[in-house]
Amino acid sequence: MKISLIATLSIATALLAGCSGIKTPTAELASHDSDRNIPAIDNMIVEMKQAYIEKCYLPVAKRIPPENACQTELFQTLERRYNMNYNQNHVAMASNDLFFKDIDTEIRKMMRTDPEVREALRNGAFRNSEEMVSYYKEKYKFDTQLEQF
Question: Which region holds residue 93: left if phi is over 0, alpha if psi is between -120 and 50, else beta?
Answer without folding.
Answer: alpha
